[in-house]
Amino acid sequence: MTSITPLDHARRRHPTSQTLSTARFAHPSEALFATLLDRYGHEWLYEPYEFPLAWNAEGQPVRGFRPDFYLPTLGLFIELTVLEQRLVTKKNQKIRQFRTLYPELHLVVVYQRDYAELLERHHLGTLQDLAA
Fold first, then answer.
1. Domain ranges within the chain, ordered by starting residue
2. What is the pLDDT of residues 79-107, one digit of tens each?
């Protein structure tokens, strides 16, 4: 095991903390999830932080992970993964790397099957409806 250097600590800092005043969601599933969070009274921020996952030789981030939602009152990050299971491998690698580098942070991953059940439970349609 190697010791942690000051550069390691600097790399772990959140490089961005810009909140978006008007969220522009990358996918309709995120907008619908935000509606659910609102319905249950959860304060949320959309993609407010990007966490470096890899750095070049000069210590500059070259790969990052930006969870979809942050719930500040719960200290919880949420990542939606509504891709087909065969396409999730790359995202799962980032999630594992995030959890290794930032073990003190709490991340919940909502996979396609779980999201579909959530939509059904709340009578909000299906994932196919979002794609249409």
1. 35-131
2. 998 877 677 888 899 999 999 999 999 99
Contact 95, 106 (CB under 8 A): no
Closest by Cα among 129, 131, 87 to 111: 87
Question: How far is Cα 57 from Cα 52, in angstroms, rounded to an integer?
Answer: 14
pTM, full prediction? 0.77
Q: What six digits make up the tokens of 38?
A: 């609102």
Residue with tokens 């009152």: 73
In order, the DSSP letters of 39-90 are HTT---EES--BEEEEE-TTS-EEEEE--SEEETTTTEEEEEE-S-GGG-HH
